[in-house]
Specification:
With 772 residues, the chain is an alpha/beta fold. The chain is built from 32 helices and 9 strands. The protein has 3 domains: 159 residues, Rossmann fold (3-Layer(aba) Sandwich); 71 residues, no CATH class; 467 residues, no CATH class. The N terminus and C terminus are likely disordered.
């Protein structure tokens, strides 16, 4: 296999003021991130490794007067070049190109033999290593006694026994760090089979390489003729590949070392984790328990987290939009400056702020699941079903989260192991109908489907799921060819999550959203609000009126939507589509403002009263207990479908939806009945993800994949809505309906064919990682 880490820059010097860099490396669930959090606290930076979407975490910590930079490498079981996981690629590339860093290798003492595979690879590379035996308290409870001194002698590097919950044991590690040197140390020679040793010696002498360099050249599996010749020679003489023979040697050596250093009394191997797993992984109980956990995830992130959305929304509006705007006007600044600063940037910050409680609650709950050990079980339970779509069971959790909000769903794909699965899941997530779309469904259901509206909405949810499945199947056979990665997962022991780890991990992920996707959201919101405020006559303050540039643009675009039943006099529906790009929850407000103003109903406008900042802040604070009370009263309905229950009157619906009564009559006159309304709802379900979701897609997958997602979803939305409307009104214009249906069906087939041709020669997603 060709070397999988490309475009690797030479290592750079440590940053000014630091003694040297420390890299944490170890198996997943070994305690690596816990150590990172213990050492750095909140002095962390979170980003991506250049070229990929794998999270890169670095930070600083001090010991006495010495300052050290620390890097948390992705969890990995090996440094094998043949491993296709991006995490392994990053870890291996970092080790090879940062040989002057100090590596702290964290091992789970309860699975010492398995962890030693990676340790032996590190020692063979000749980099400075400290081995940290974590979870020694658990090992002792299992009557496992590990001779750390003998282990240190056998692998020829320092070994420290710790339980990361105890500060005293970290002091020993800190002293070892102070005493350590980052100069390369003599490599530990792992004995290979005699035939391989002979060929390895011959190869190293021919190219004048030392043993480590020769091993790395053969492992890289490049295009060099000499390398290819000896790799073939190894296969011819041993009937095994070079990578297989090396792996066998590591396993054998790890087994021999473990047998020498572990003394184990009689142990009851049936642990508490095993007892819990009988139910959590049971054939009949696994899925119900999983669905209950997902229900709790919804309840906590969407309902309990959502109970604080109004507080963030109204507070930022009071301070940064209305309050700031009034303050600027009182200072006599021009209207256009107020438009940019308050209505533009302030409104953008307001939109970002409304996502903070939901995303924060989501990350908090997911962190608890990960730290407790359940997340691995959830992936195992759903793996069989998800594998049919070309992704592993881990992808199910982000998709379920999408029913609450697509943004945290897309951000949650970071828990997936491979870049291919991340991209595929990100492109599927926007088809999960989020809670914001539900407000649009509720309005249309109340007007056009007063009886049985919940059934229509349920059909929309199923339609979204169907298109997500269709998207996965098409991607699997075109630009993202392949099957789900082989699913071998180490099920960690259940444990009580550490509060410090939960707080730090949640904070870092939330900060990553605000500083990453948040910046894009603010810019786009500012631009849309400016266009919505400026009138065709150059005046300001025309938000959601027929005089704004946005409304004028919508009138021009309305004929595009004529095939799905939107006539020229129904141009407010087009404005709703355009503002829905900003956020789906603003569609209802846009439609209400425009439809009610069209009929010019007396009494629909409110007199301007003096702005009272304290009153608005008080109103914001009062929403928290009110929303929490409503959440407790609706524990059985986390998605909110109960809002679709038939109302006693349209007046009651108007009050509940905060919509003007004039809007109801105006919409009834301008939409083509139930058929036109459902076509519009289909479009809202499927089209352009909101700005926040799109920016999250861009952050997680890059520009090209985000663009593909936007074009794909919007094309499906238009084609599906038009075909539905044309077939439903076939008797009115049969020839037109046939032409539209056939042409759009052919366009869909052509689009799939283009994707197929684009991915015909793609076997894997190119990965370029810069380790500087």
């Amino acid at each position: 296999m060709k070397a999988c880490c490309e475009d690797i820059a030479a290592p750079v010097a440590d940053e000014a003021g630091t003694d040297f860099t420390i890299a944490l490396i170890g198996n997943p669930n070994s305690g690596k991130t816990s150590l990172f959090n213990r050492l750095t606290g909140t002095r962390q930076k979170t980003g991506n490794w250049p070229g990929v979407t794998v999270e890169k975490k670095s930070g600083y910590f001090k010991i006495d007067q010495h300052k050290f930079k620390i890097v948390d490498l992705p969890g990995t079981y090996s440094l094998d070049a043949a491993d296709t996981s991006i995490d392994e690629r990053i870890a291996r590339g970092y080790v090879q190109h940062h040989r002057h860093d100090l590596f702290i290798n964290i091992l789970d003492a309860t699975t010492l033999e398995r962890g030693l595979y990676l340790t032996l690879q590190l020692r063979e590379q000749g980099v400075p290593v400290i081995v940290l035996l974590n979870m020694m308290d658990v090992a002792r409870k299992r009557n496992m006694h590990i001779d750390s001194s003998e282990l240190s002698r056998l692998i020829q590097c320092p070994v420290v026994e710790v339980s990361l919950k105890q500060d005293k044991e970290l002091n020993q590690l800190q002293q070892l760090i102070l005493q350590s040197s980052t100069h390369p140390v003599p490599a530990l020679e792992i004995p290979y089979a005699d035939e391989l040793e002979t060929l390895l010696k011959e190869f190293s002498e021919k190219l004048q390489l030392n043993r480590r360099q020769a091993i790395n050249r053969l492992q890289d599996d490049g295009d060099d003729e000499t390398v290819q010749f000896y790799l073939k020679k190894i296969v011819d003489e041993t009937q095994k590949s070079f990578s297989y023979l090396r792996a066998k040697s590591y396993f054998l050596q790890a087994q021999q070392i473990a047998e020498k250093v572990i003394r184990q009394a009689k142990v009851n191997r049936y642990t508490i984790s095993d007892s819990v797993d009988k139910w959590v992984l049971g054939s009949y109980t696994g899925i119900p328990i999983f669905l209950f956990i997902i229900y709790l995830l919804f309840l906590f992130s969407i309902n309990i987290g959502g109970a604080f959305v109004d507080f963030f929304d109204l507070t930022t509006q009071a301070l940064l939009v209305d309050g700031l705007g009034q303050g600027l006007l009182s200072l006599g600044v021009p209207e256009w400056i107020k438009l940019i600063i308050a209505d533009g940037i302030g409104s953008g910050i307001q939109v970002v702020a409304t996502f903070i409680p939901i995303i924060g609650a989501l990350y908090l709950f997911l962190t608890v699941l990960e730290e407790s050990g359940y997340m691995a079980r959830a992936a195992f339970v759903m793996d069989r079903f998800m594998r049919k779509l070309g992704v592993s069971g881990k992808a199910f959790v982000p998709l379920i989260v999408g029913f609450g909000c697509n943004v945290p769903a897309i951000m949650a794909t970071r828990t997936l192991d491979s870049q291919r699965e991340r991209i595929m899941t990100v492109l599927m997530a926007p088809f999960m109908s989020c809670g914001a779309r539900l407000t649009v469904y509720a309005l249309f259901a109340a007007i056009f489907f007063p009886r049985g509206g919940q059934n229509i909405v349920f059909l929309l949810y199923l339609t979204g799921i169907g298109f997500a499945i269709l998207t996965a199947l098409i991607l699997r056979h075109t630009v993202l060819k392949g099957d789900a990665d082989d699913f071998m997962m180490d099920l960690p022991n259940y444990q009580r999550p550490g509060l410090q780890n939960i707080a730090i991990n949640t904070w870092n992920k939330l900060k990553g959203f605000v500083t990453g996707a948040g910046k894009i959201i603010i810019v786009v919101v500012m631009l849309i609000n400016i266009v919505n405020s400026i009138g065709t006559d150059g005046s300001f303050g025309n938000q959601n009126t027929d005089k704004s540039l946005l409304s004028a643009t919508a009138r021009t675009m309305t004929p595009i939507f004529r095939p799905m039943g939107i006539t020229n006099d129904n141009w407010p529906a087009t404005v709703g589509i355009l503002t829905g790009v900003l956020a789906k929850e603003v569609v209802v407000g846009t439609l209400d403002a425009l439809y009610s103003s069209i009929d010019d109903v007396p009494g629909t406008s409110l007199e301007q009263s003096p702005y009272d900042l304290l009153a608005h802040l008080k109103q914001a604070a009062q929403t928290v207990p009110k929303n929490l009370k409503e959440t407790l009263n609706n524990l059985s309905d986390p998605i909110g479908l109960g809002t679709l229950a038939p109302a006693d009157s349209l007046q009651q619906v108007a009050v509940e939806q905060d919509v003007n009564m004039a809007t109801f009559s105006a919409m009834k006159r301008r939409f083509d009945g139930k058929i036109g309304a459902f076509a519009y709802m289909l479009f809202v379900l499927l089209y352009f993800p909101c700005v926040a979701a799109t920016s999250a897609m861009y952050r997680e997958t890059g520009k090209n994949w985000a663009m593909l997602g936007v074009i794909w979803s919007t094309s499906l939305a238009y084609g599906t809505s038009v075909i539905f409307y044309q077939l439903a009104t076939f008797s009115r214009h049969p020839i037109q309906s046939v032409l539209w249906t056939v042409s759009l069906s052919l366009a869909f087939v052509l689009g799939v064919y283009v994707l197929f041709k684009s991915g015909k020669n793609k076997n894997e997603i190119p990965v370029k990682v810069n380790f500087s």
